[in-house]
Specification:
Helix content is about 70%, strand content about 0%. It is mainly alpha-helical. It folds into 2 domains: about 10-90, no CATH class; about 110-155, no CATH class.
Length: about 170
């Protein structure tokens, strides 16, 4: 066992614990010390492997999530259950919906627009995410009628209208 770095300040009680561990380790025979060091290396290697697997899984999940996949689609791709995906993401601060009716799209927003959104959300009395959701809902309701009118976009296909009439 090694001594703690000198540049760090440790409380007295922690120094006593470290010293007791050092004395206990020194009391072991040479074979026991070797076995303890080997076990310690194996534990560290297992921890590194678990951490790497977790990072790889997180990368896969969040890439699929950013691409717009639902929890069940992500679960099928990574070989897990949908609730496992939802809880895994939630433990890392990301909400993934289990609903097939909710999709997520990642968009790039300039800092100026992000600041404007946050100011509007503060005036609106909601979070930036809630304000953005309300803006999208408002502009995309009724087959994006408001957005089409503001952006002067003419309807070129009636595929959606035909599906709604059927």
């Amino acid at each position: 066992m090694t001594a703690p770095p000198h540049e760090r300040k440790y409380p007295g009680w922690l120094l006593k614990i470290i010293e007791a561990k050092r004395r206990a380790f020194d009391a072991l025979s040479d074979e026991e010390k070797a076995a303890a060091l080997d076990a310690q290396k194996e534990r560290r290697q297992r921890a590194r492997t678990r951490r790497a697997q977790s990072l790889s899984l997180a990368s896969q999940i969040f890439k699929l999530h950013d691409a717009g996949y639902t929890a069940s689609e992500i679960a099928d791709r990574v070989g897990r259950r949908p609730w496992t995906i939802i809880h895994f993401a939630a433990s890392r601060g990301v909400f993934i919906s289990s609903s097939a009716l909710i999709a997520r799209r990642a968009v790039t927003v300039s800092r100026d627009r992000e600041d404007a959104l946050r100011r509007m959300a503060a005036d609106y009395g909601k979070t930036a995410a809630e304000a953005l959701d309300d803006l999208l809902t408002f502009s995309l309701d009724d087959d994006a009628a408001v957005a089409r009118r503001v952006l002067r976009v003419k309807r070129t296909s009636n595929a959606n209208s035909e599906q709604q009439g059927a």
